[in-house]
Amino acid sequence: MTTDRLYHTISQVAEELGEAPSTLRFWETAFPQLKPVKNSRGTRCYTARDIELLKRIQYLTRHCGYTLEGAREHLRSRPAEDPRVALTANLTELRRFLVELKERI
Predict the structure, then answer these.
(1) b vs e for 23-51, b when ≥16 Cβ sit within 10 Å of the residue's Cβ?
(2) Counted domains in the chain
(3) Partners of 26 in the beta sheet?
(4) Would residue 2 count as lying in a domain?
(5) What is the pLDDT of residue 81?
């Protein structure tokens, strides 16, 4: 995300990733590493670390074809950041910008 906010809502994160909020909630149950903070009303508040983890999960499941169990094992065995995740996120953001630019023309 391009803002300097400490926390982001599930709808903001879902929009950024191009996923449904229900998918993010499901991933939260499937990946023990993903624990967004919940406020007093139970609203999920995602940190930058949570968002990076979600991007890794998305990359592994959507682009690399991992099953949820395979992605969980991959994250367990390789906790360090995969540079392809950042590249994929940057390209996705660039694509969104270009699509928006095309629509304006």
Answers:
(1) bbeebbeebeebebeeeeeeebbbeeebb
(2) 1
(3) none
(4) no
(5) 62
Q: Which residues contact 33 (CB under 8 A, 6 or more apart)?
A: 53, 75
Burial class (CB in 10 A: 0-12, 13-18, 19+), 60: buried
- What residue type is 33 in one-letter code? Q
Specify the 3-state DSSP secondary structure of 43: coil
Q: What is the maximum span of the chain, computed from C-alpha positions, in angstroms?
A: 46
CATH code, domain with 69: 1.10.1660.10
Name the residue range of residue 20's domain: 10-104
> For all residues of the chain together, what is the average pLDDT?
89
Q: Is 99 contained in some domain?
A: yes
The average pLDDT across 48-61 equals: 93
- Rounded Cα distance between 68 and 83, Å, is 20
Asked if 13 and 54 count as a contact pair (C-beta separation under 8 A), the reply is yes
pLDDT in tens, 21-36: 999 999 999 999 999 9
Q: How many CA atoms lie within 13 A of 91 on its CB side?
A: 8
